[in-house]
Design brief:
2 domains; 8-stranded parallel beta sheet
Length: 242
């Protein structure tokens, strides 16, 4: 069953889809009246409905069933991801949203490319759309929150709110991620930090260490940012959710 995102499902027995979703429904999926579809609002509410009619810029859906569902991991995991080039950043958002990431914080480091300060709103809006599409595809009833980008020092200065803070590092002295997770059996929340192409500068790693971040290794290979982001998240959720 095709799924569509509606930020406000209201309380009526029908709902109107906006032009973006209506166009996708009519032109791409070729759905017509009577088609069964699912709707979700990103807060955990999901509805099953029947498409009643499709207009030029909107579509009306008759609600058949409404329920609150929780398909997210129990553990709140936040990714602080160094901003990288568009395609790689898009892939990091998509893959981590599919896995169940609670929040993504774009971080500007000394080696980040591109810088996002001049077009912050446009970048965030794009990543939000990707997170929505990922939730539609994988069956989540919530959407990964995309926070406002911030410089690395600002993130480190406010990292005490998480139960376990990790920084992915290729350095030989970094502990294996699995060993660190085993040593922390039930953190209330996890924040993990992934660097840009070329990695963090030594000074940035020292600052992360001073802020309480534990350096962890994801294996012998040096991974791309988008690969490291998804690999670490999968390992964290596998450890705590299975």
């Amino acid at each position: 069953m095709h799924r569509f995102y509606v930020p406000d499902l209201g309380t009526e027995n029908f709902v109107w889809l906006d032009s973006r979703e209506a166009l996708h429904m009519a032109r791409t999926l070729r759905l017509g009246p009577g088609a069964g579809i699912a709707l979700f609002d990103g807060s955990g509410v999901e509805c099953v409905g029947l498409l009643e009619r499709v207009e030029r810029r909107r579509a009306k859906v008759q609600i058949v069933r409404r329920e609150r569902l929780d398909r997210d991991p129990r553990l709140a995991v936040t990714l602080a991801c160094a901003v990288v080039k568009a395609k790689a950043m898009d892939q990091a958002v998509e893959r981590c949203a599919e896995l169940g990431l609670r929040e993504l914080i774009p971080v500007e480091t000394r080696r980040s490319v591109p810088k996002v300060a001049s077009k912050e709103a446009a970048h965030v809006e794009r990543w939000e759309r990707i997170a929505v599409e990922a939730s539609k595809q994988c069956g989540r009833t919530t959407v990964t929150r995309i926070a406002a980008p911030r410089p690395l020092p600002a993130l480190l200065a406010r990292s005490e709110g998480w139960g376990l803070t990790l920084v992915c590092s290729p350095e030989p002295q970094a502990a294996r991620l699995r060993d660190v997770l085993v040593a922390h059996p039930s953190p209330p929340s996890v924040l993990y930090l992934v660097g840009p192409e070329g990695g963090f500068e030594e000074g940035e790693l020292r600052d992360a260490d001073a802020a309480g971040f534990v350096p962890v290794s994801l294996g012998r290979s040096i991974l791309r940012t988008e690969t490291a982001a998804a690999t670490a998240l999968a390992a964290i959720l596998y450890q705590y959710e299975t």
